[in-house]
Amino acid sequence: MTGHNGPMDNVRPLVELSRATVRFGTLLALDGVDFRMYPGEVHSLMGENGAGKSTLIRAITGVISLTEGTLALGGERMHFTSPQDAQRAGISTVYQEINLLPNMSVAENIRLGREPRRWGVIDGAKMRQEAKDVLDELGLDIDPASLLGSHSVAVQQLVAIARAISVDVRVLVLDEPTSSLDLVEVGELFRVIRELKEGGVAILFVSHFLDQVYEICDRITVLRDGALVGEYFPTDLLRIELVQKMLGRDAPEFAERGRLESAEVRENAFLSGRGLTSAAGIIDADVDLAEGEVLGVAGLLGSGRTALARAVTGVDGLAAGQVQIEGRPVRLNSPRKAMDLGVAYSSENRRAEGVLGDMSVLDNITLALQAQRGAFRRIKPARQRELAASWADALGIKPTDLDRPVRTLSGGNQQKVMLARLLALAPRVLVLDEPTRGIDVGAKVEIQNLVSDLATNGLSVVFISAELEEVLRVSDRVAILRDARIVETVTSGTLTVESVLALVAHPASSEA
Amino acid sequence: MTTTTQATVKPGSTAKATMSSFVTRHATWLPTFAAIAILVVLLVGAQVRFGNFLTPGNMSALLLDNAAVIVLAVGMTFVILTAGIDLSVGSVMAFTGIFGAKLMSDGVPTAVAIPVMFACGAAIGLLIGVLVQYFNVQPFIASLAGLFLGRGLAFVVSLNQINVKNKEIGWLQSTRIGFGNWYITPTGIIAILVVVIGALVLQYTRFGRTIYAVGGSESSARLMGLQVSRTKILAYVISGFCGGLAGLLLTAYSGSSAYPRSGIGTELDVIAAVVIGGTLLTGGRGYVLGSLIGVLVLGCINTIITFMGAEQSWNRIIVGVLLLLFIVLQRAIVSRSSRTG
To answer: What's the rounded Cα separation, in Å, for the pair A274 and A288?
Structure first.
């Protein structure tokens, strides 16, 4: 049964959705989709944000129920009314946003709800041992008794995966499991996925990383606007075709633009930092940023990418070093101060430090501008609307309804709202930390193009991303970080993904 | 933030790593350790100041005078750990106390009256829990309603003190089991048992761990497939049950008498004790043992002020200051751990 490469007539599908339809009010989120997964296959669900991927996943995992259509598991009709029902039936899920308990131990996060008990009492030692075994399987060497909240996002994501595979799982649903993992960790995850696949588990793998999809998946189902586009084998489907199917049109082309030369930058640095050091994890960093330049930042997770961003934007205080703007030394001791000096920061953590989900698109866009003006110089509602509408239009925020709560927008559009808010302040420097994380291919290219346009118009941008291709594509120069230090700043034209990887991973790669 | 804690992923253990692993393992105990430290400072300080403070008699009294509050604090800990609050405990204690006393003075056997008291407390807790869970009422408001309900019912039962003649009730308080000059009454034993059972349930049962899970993140707990609704409601039921038990202990403590006005404002002392004991009002962190310590800290301050012959109003001020200190301490710990997280 293992190793087969797709639907075979003699194998019964493990998961079968027939004519699955989900309506939220008047919104048709899933429109009569047929979807099948077979035991022992890795199946990828592809589509832009809003295509219905999350809805389909949540229908399978019992979070929502189908309005019409049927769900069958191993040929048996299922009516899940809660995630528990689905879990009991052998469906394990790792959600995109880490849904774990930071106040509890790693072991409990892995085993709670299925913990070993003796006479109704939890067997702590056995639970920690079980957790340890799963963690070992994932190559994660952490203390199972430590608090989950004390670990990095990447470790937490691995713990979420550990929880999902720590049971007798028949169907494993992984929604963007790799969004904060580094290459080594992704490798470990893929090894585990392949083992589970050998054991006959059906794995639904949702990722925006095309490379990963092509590396691990046996079949690809493409959704668009809540409807099924088709089911394909990766071997028969070129990437460009896949993207076209997802978008329903040709992929937006990345617009190349002229690159700046290093020498120019040094001469005309708008913002420069010398010896920047902060407790958050950046040591003795020198940065120069010219007007209209995009400075990429590349490095492994934990190399100090975010710490660097937070150091130049006043979020973290500097332990040592000096920032100059237009040659004048400045003290950036708060994000507010940085904004007053024209330095705006967009956090990697969109949900926690970015958009305000329950507020409208309009309010989210005008918020920072109003805050900067102060409460006594209120922007008139009509002016606010005009302002928000112009930014929403310029950035292509969809849907165009400005009164919708931001949380109802797709990740890519939320990111645009956040950009619009910062741009409304007319900043001189924009520091973007993972602006394209967790958003779909089309939106990614749109954001990249936007950054390019902004730079062409004289804005300086610091562009941080875990995706090296994108960093190289967008940036004029790339600062390469390793172990909290900038090891080199190189003109991006001279770099390839492989050469950056070599620089980024240099001594650390042998350790892993 | 993903950049700060690489050390935890890499192997290679140093003394520093061991230390930080100790801290990450036990960070949640820090506020409770602080409460223990304060209790020790208070006890030692009072002994130095008065010379006759740390006597077996005085220490035994410290426990026994606060038996009812200790029981309430255990129940409150369950509720606060789920990120809720229960304002009803003082009046539930009064209502169950006076209702039980009424039943007993009307000739209902003790063995029937006592379970009825517990059931009444639990029923009010159930009502609050259902309001919170199924009607989405804020715990503050739902339990405020419970507070008024309990107090009202207490006055419905009787406007005046009711004395109980059942010897079992007297036995609870008058029996002294001594070890030298140390002594304990059945009420004290009950309070300690409640603490021990509460601690064991919270630490070692699925229900107890689910309480912590709900307080950590209710939506995560739900997606992890835990029984969120049942657990939350049960937390309020336990708090109500503890209210009923405290009603019994208070009746015994008051010389087999119950008053409809007893326990006014007790809920605030109980909440203060739980917070001082290190339980986070935002839920998910804290220990029953801490709540016991919190009650003892408050009791100790009370005793010290009596010893000094000072105005009892100072008691309130000191408790207020302590509460403030502890909340600041907790914020510091939480912001520290969320920064590394």
So the answer is: 9
